[in-house]
Design goal:
Blueprint (H helix, E strand, L loop, with lengths): L6 H22 L5 H4 L5 H20 L3 H5 L4 H29 L1 H8 L2 H9 L8 H24 L6 H27 L5 H26 L6 H32 L2 H7 L1 H15 L5 H28 L3
Helix pairs in contact: 1-11, 1-13, 1-14, 3-5, 3-10, 3-11, 5-6, 5-9, 5-10, 6-8, 6-9, 6-13, 7-8, 7-9, 7-12, 8-14, 10-11, 12-14
């Protein structure tokens, strides 16, 4: 039986979904610091460390209800988990780490900051989505904000290194595919909770990390000091717990509560928090253009929320 959503319940879902999206962005922003904290290690090694820890934590959390949960999954769900884990975790983080190490946090944040625009444009094609023309003011504010964020970085020689830029663009494409696919999977899998779906993703990503261990042993340097390995382990476990377990759980909750066009806007908070953490890491205050970017991004999200509230009100029965 289909239950109509009233404007009040729709508003409550949007408010809770936005809070979950902001929380996910705050936790995900920390992953931009990890490549700097463990610079002695390659992007592939950073991905393996993070997602091996993510897989172990997911296995421990999901073990008590594994049999009941596994019975709900078909071959289609396992295939979806495999490609979502690759696009949204393994491949994305290898590319992101490479972009940070070769091009810097600011340049990487600029490119990743276009995720909301990419996801929102794709989401506008979904049935019942807010029309793209209605979202135009929000998208323009979003684009202006991301341009302000990266203006200083693009002017710097380190921010224009071709390899780092290509890695950042690849990460953008990879996570856009994940965000769209994950949202659509959650929409049809009402029998699996958002948290369990996140843990299942962690389980599959952990298996991918194990499969990549022989690659890094054969082709990448592994001779580091004991102190470096301890720091690497601490960073891997910390990012896995905070960003992958908690951040992904909040994101999946937001994906269930929000339409894809609005969920796409929430990704921009990852960029804002990444920049904030970057300022703290560099011990400096934001520049005028960066302050302007914060204002434009907030205005973009508020404009998108207002557009969805108006759309929900028009669709609700009177």
């Amino acid at each position: 039986m289909h239950l109509a959503v009233t404007p009040q319940s729709g508003t409550s879902r949007i408010f809770l979904g936005v809070l979950c999206g902001v929380g996910a962005g705050a936790l995900w922003g920390l992953v931009f610091l990890a490549p700097e904290l463990a610079r002695a290690f390659t992007p592939l090694q950073l991905a393996i460390g993070r997602y091996f820890a993510y897989g172990l934590l997911s296995a421990a959390l999901i073990a008590p209800r594994w049999r009941a949960l596994a019975a709900l999954l078909t071959r289609r769900e396992w295939l979806a988990l495999a490609w979502l884990s690759l696009a949204g975790n393994t491949l994305y983080y290898v590319l992101l780490s490479g972009a940070v190490q070769m091009g810097g946090i600011a340049m990487t944040s600029l490119v990743i900051g276009f995720l909301p625009v990419a996801v929102t444009i794709i989401g506008s094609r979904d049935h019942g989505a807010v029309p793209l023309r209605t979202l135009a003011p929000s998208l323009l504010l979003c684009a202006a904000g991301t341009l302000c964020i990266g203006w200083q970085a693009v002017a710097e020689p380190a921010g224009t290194q071709l390899a780092g830029l290509l890695c950042a663009i690849g990460a953008l494409m990879s996570w856009t595919a994940y965000a769209v696919g994950n949202s659509r999977c959650l929409a049809r899998l009402d029998r699996v909770s958002a948290h369990d779906w996140s843990l299942l993703t962690g389980l599959v990503t952990g298996a991918q990390a194990v499969a990549l261990i022989p690659v890094t042993i054969l082709f990448e340097p592994t001779s580091h000091s004991a102190a470096a390995w301890l720091q690497f382990a601490a960073v891997s476990i910390g990012v896995a717990l905070v960003a992958s377990i908690l951040g992904n759980a909040l994101w999946n909750r937001a994906s269930r509560l929000l339409p894809l066009t609005l969920a796409g806007q929430m990704i921009l908070f990852e960029t804002l928090f990444a920049l904030l953490y970057g300022f703290m890491w560099e011990h400096r205050l934001p520049l005028p253009l960066e302050i302007a970017a914060f204002g434009l991004v907030v205005a973009s999200v508020l404009a998108c929320i207002a557009a969805h509230r108006r759309h929900a009100s028009r669709l609700a029965p009177h």
